[in-house]
Amino acid sequence: xxxxxxxxxxxxxxxxxxxxxxxxxxxxxxPARPAAEKIVPAAAKVTTMKTAGVxxxxxxxxxxxxxxxxxxxxxxxxxxxxxxxxxxxxxxxSVNYREKGGRYVAFKxxxxxxxxxxxxxxPVPGKPAGKSPPKEKSGTR
Length: 141
Prior knowledge:
By secondary structure, this protein is α+β, with helices and mostly antiparallel strands. It has a domain at about 50-110: CATH 2.40.50.140. About 15% of the residues lie in helices and about 35% in strands. Strands 1-2-3-5-4 form a five-stranded mixed barrel. A hairpin with a 2-residue loop joins strand 2 (about 60-70) and strand 3 (about 70-80). The mean pLDDT is about 75.
């Protein structure tokens, strides 16, 4: 009985360790590339940013918005990729932009619509707030 248990454990360890005996100690080598296939670094990823504010000035090539940032008013100027249509001074706008050559260039300018909150029901004096208790049915069956 002891011999069969020891033999079983020994076979288990041999099977467990057998894949390591067949492995080479050397890592696989990648095939050499010809000189014509040089690795070109990927283009630098352009970061896009977004801000919102009130439109203060519009020209053919630039816009200026005034935004509130940390309890301060700040004016930002953006170059335009294409002319704007349908916007006027005083509109609330959302601007998506990138930084190119030390300047901010807006690629999307959209008018923001003000969200109107639904009317709030005020509680009637004398009635408790929340759900009313279910009414009992009267009558006989």
